[in-house]
Design a protein that fits this description.
98% of the residues lie in helices and 0% in strands. By secondary structure, it is mostly helical. The protein is rod-shaped.
Length: 109
């Protein structure tokens, strides 16, 4: 009788230990799933960060292109203005030269 109770207690003890181990394994599996979810979240965050960086770089390139186009446009306008100024100076010299020629002709007459 006593032996049977001891055996019963031993079986119950082993079952409790198994249940606890089983629960421990389940907890460990849950912890592993949580770690995996954390890794996935981190990967997603990294991808979003990389995408943000790519977008920022694209906007910078576009901005740089716009700045370069504006610089070239100003340079062309400046070159045109320089050319117009040269043309005005040339015309002014020609008028002065023509006046000089006209005065010499009048003196010669």
């Amino acid at each position: 009788m006593r032996e049977e109770r001891n055996e019963e207690r031993e079986r119950e003890r082993r079952m409790r230990e198994e249940n606890e181990r089983g629960g421990g394994e389940e907890r460990e599996r849950e912890r592993e799933r949580e770690r995996e979810r954390g890794r996935e979240r981190e990967t997603e965050e990294n991808e979003r960060g990389k995408q943000g960086n790519r977008e920022r770089e694209r906007r910078m390139r576009e901005g740089n292109k716009e700045i370069e186009r504006e610089r070239e446009r100003r340079m062309r306008e400046g070159n045109k203005e320089i050319e117009r100024e040269r043309e005005r100076e040339r015309e002014k010299r020609m008028r002065e030269r023509n006046k000089e020629i006209e005065r010499e002709r009048e003196r010669g007459e």
